[in-house]
Each structure stands twice: as C-alpha cells, then as structure tokens.
Design a protein that fits this description.
Length: 259
C-alpha cells in the first residue's frame, strides 16, 4: 500500500489520531469502543464524515473516515496510507530515576516529541525501584501522548536499569551516537554528530555523577564519537531539573540545524 503525503489543507482536516493494533490497521474498518469512543465521540464530538489518522504504534499510519456513530461505538472506514509524522532521528533517552509523578510527566513530553526509547536507570546517586503498576501507567501515558501529538511510533519504556550496564558496553562504532549532559567536562563540537541516524541521550541524577562514574565517562569521551566514544554536552549556565534537562536536550537534538 503506497504512502501518500497529505497536502496542507488535507492535514488540517485530520481532526484526531487513534492508536489501534497492527492487525486492525491492515483491515478495511475499525470499530471504536470503550475509552477511545468516549474521548472521541462524547468528549470531542466527532461526527460522521470527519477524517482522522489511525496508527499502529509501529510506524503504520492511515487516514480514516467516521462512517457510523452509535450509542456506545463508532465505525471508521480506513483509507489511504499516510506518511508517518516522525522525526528523522531515532533518539533514545536514558534518564536517571525520578519520582513516579515526575517520570510520568517526562514520558508524556518525550512521547510527544517522538523519542523512540525511554529508559529510567539507577546510578550511585539516584536509585528508585518502580512498582509493577508504574510500567502500565507509563505506557498509558505514552499512548495518550502519541495520539495527542499525531505520531505513529509508540516509544519503548524500560524501568529499573543500571547505569553500570551502559558504562560496561564495549565501544562500538555501530552503536548509537551517545550524548551525555555533563557539566564537569568541556562540551565537544556537536557537528561531530552530523548525519547520525540514531542517538542516545544520557541524563544524570540531580546530584551529578559519582567520581567513579565520572572517571568512566571521561574514558568514553577520550575515544571520540567515530570510535564508539561519547560526547559531553551542556545546556547553559542554569541548573535545571533532571526532567527539564531531558526535555530541552531531546528537543535540541531532534531539530538541531547542524544535523
């Protein structure tokens, strides 16, 4: 099925985005019920004939027309495939563990931006064990952010990882280019990342990296990006919250003019 970009006027007429399963996107019609129905056809009052975007969370995207609205469900007729509204850069974010409410906020914002993978990790100065229910909560937040922003790829979310795992990776030039927010090392020229299709952004804890972690980071910086090393980055003189720094740095990397 060929993908067809929509002209500006047609894009405006796509009044909402709905996330469905991959098997549903491959069919001819989708029946909407439950929470999605209440949101789209009760709260937002979509009507017969209106057009929306239907996505599968894996990059698939099709236009759809509201064909029928009943008391507890609605039927959509699927039409042409659409060009996915996704950033060119595949960005993953490793963020020091946050309290659940702050982590939830960050998942929402990074999901809106189009970050592909979100990892919350424990380090020597930031440790938090998430309850099992937090995974489901963060995934619900990510789905909502995807629909709100008109995206088509649902980010993977991982909890309770260890920073040691990342530091222990053998240098690999084929791995994603890694950028670390680090105030203790002079920033390097970001143009070194020019042309990178994948990047990994690392955000440290509010108390900073430990001396042992800083020593290991310095060794990675010394390798150089082209040899699988890492790149230190700064955001300016202000001291930012972890989640603020993660959001600002992600936005900069996704739209950087030097890319």
């Amino acid at each position: 099925m060929p993908s067809e970009p929509l002209a500006g006027d047609d894009r405006v007429r796509l009044v909402a985005t709905l996330l469905v399963g991959p098997e549903q996107l491959g069919g001819q019609r989708v029946v909407v019920g439950g929470d999605a129905y209440r949101h789209l056809f009760r709260a937002r009052r979509l009507a017969v004939g209106e057009r929306l975007r239907v996505v599968d969370g894996r990059g698939g995207s099709r236009a759809a027309v509201v064909e029928e609205v009943e008391r507890s469900s609605a039927t959509l007729r699927l039409e042409e495939a659409l060009v996915a509204a996704e950033p060119d850069l595949r960005l993953e974010v490793w963020c020091a563990a946050l309290r659940p409410e702050r982590a939830s906020w960050l998942v929402e914002k990074l999901g809106e931006l189009g970050v592909r993978r979100i990892v919350f990790y424990d380090s020597e100065r930031s440790q938090h064990r998430y309850a099992d229910r937090q995974q489901a909560r963060f995934e619900r937040v990510a789905r909502s952010a995807l629909e709100q922003s008109g995206g088509s790829v649902l980010p993977a979310i991982e909890l309770d990882r260890r920073f040691d795992e990342l530091l222990a990776e053998a240098p690999d030039a084929a791995a994603p280019a890694t950028v670390v927010l680090d105030l203790r090392h002079p920033p390097q020229e970001p143009a070194l990342l020019r042309g990178a299709a994948r990047m990994r952004l690392v955000i440290g804890p509010e108390g900073g990296f430990s001396p042992h972690e800083e020593e290991r980071l310095a060794a990675r910086y010394a390798l150089g990006v082209r040899e699988g090393g890492w790149l230190p980055m700064r955001l300016g003189p202000r001291v930012l919250r972890v989640e603020t720094a993660a959001l600002v740095a992600s936005g900069l990397l996704l739209v950087a003019p030097w890319r």
